[in-house]
Amino acid sequence: LRHGMRSMKCQLMAASLCVMLLGLSIATLSTVTRYGLHFSTISNVALESSSYRAIYHAAFYIGVCLSMTLILAALLSAVATVRESRFLTATAFFCFALAFCGLTPAACWRYMHSTEVEDSILDVYDLVYEEVRRNGSSSRRHELTIIHEVFLCCGKYSPLGDTAAVEHKTCPGTAWAAGRDCLQEMRGFLKKHMGFVSTLLGITIGFTVYGMVLTSFLWFSIRFSNNLDRKGKYTLR
């Protein structure tokens, strides 16, 4: 039993390190999503009623909560492994389970609403672009220029064919030289970003389940080990 516990403790320590790194990765990704130039630029020009703003804020706060839960679970499981504490092991298991309950809905939402983030960002761009096209002196022109600078793109294809004036006014030199369609550039950027999010969620869920299994087995091992150590020992009263 002791030999099995040593092996389990080594596995749990390694898993705890991986979970901590994953928690830090989620925290970093949430911060980039919140304060990154591409996402913050779209958020600054989006209307208060835009669905993008709700997704934008929710992604940050959910990511921070998940990362804190994962880091706490990793720390507790590492301390519980060293001290062989049943209370700390049970607490670590609870934190892993809590993180799993948060990660699973996040992953399901990612796959069931895979185009919602993309659609909300493209809707923001379309709204700003159309306002500038209809009114060349609109205050939105500066906002559209910033979007073109950040995404290094210039305008979009329109079946109306009257976009040249907008592009001349809102495309700076670098964006004009790139000459790429903004809708395509945004789709490409979001595809890479969401692909990384999906990969990170999948790996984190796997390690969370692994941590739950290890902490539960360690809890039972500590309990049975303590019972075996006391076997045959009696106290006379």
TrEMBL record:
Annotated transmembrane regions: 58-80, 87-112, 196-220
Gene3D superfamilies per UniProt: Tetraspanin
Cystines in this chain: C153-C182, C154-C171
Cellular location(s): Membrane
Keywords from the UniProt entry: Disulfide bond, Membrane, Transmembrane, Transmembrane helix
Topology term for the membrane: Multi-pass membrane protein
A Pfam short name: Tetraspanin
GO CC terms of this entry: membrane
UniProt entry tagged with the keyword Disulfide bond: yes
Family of the protein in this entry: Belongs to the tetraspanin (TM4SF) family.
Name of the protein in question: Tetraspanin
Species per Swiss-Prot/TrEMBL record: Odontophorus gujanensis
Gene: Tspan32
